[in-house]
Amino acid sequence: MTAALSFQHVFEPGSEPPLLLLHGTGGDEHDLLPVGRLLAPGRALLSPRGQVLERGAPRFFRRLAEGVFDEVDIRRRAADLAAFVGEARAAYGLSAPVAVGFSNGANMAAALLLLHPDVLAGAVLLRAMVPLDEPGSGPLDGRPVLILSGAMDPIVPEANAQQLARQLEEAGARVRHEILPGGHNLGQQDVTRAAAWLGGLP
């Protein structure tokens, strides 16, 4: 049963640690459930819907233009999402989740890591870019992070994804950054690499 919490969401019971699924622009709480099931069969899944609407499309935070983020809004929305994760952990009896975020959801997962380092046990960031010019400095205490970028991504420049990897490393995360063939959309290689990485976590 899904509890009434501060974010509209779906919860699927399963094994620990749970996956926190964060959709991209225009997605919703159902969007990444099939991906979560593929990445970690039998794992508990917690999937909230972003609370910002951009021309009717749900997002996790506001942007001022393509690739230009409202950093004040990011900080506020990250605090709201961190509070929701705490509510969900209490309601469902969960340990700290590993985030799996795509695009806007990956950027929000990165912001959570940098601003609220105790909320997540780790993260898979799919097509992520730098969410904050001046983020917090951890400590992330060796939390594992996988960043999967697209070599031909028209939205996320390679240098930007590399800067995000550096920010997370400087905050204390254990980062693995891979650049895969393809663009901004996800492909089978993303699923294969992310599933193997998740399967290797303690």
Automatic annotation (TrEMBL):
Residues 77-128 form the AB hydrolase-1 domain. Pfam families: Abhydrolase_1. InterPro entries: AB_hydrolase_1, AB_hydrolase_fold, LYPA1-2/EST-like. This is Phospholipase/carboxylesterase. It comes from Arboricoccus pini.
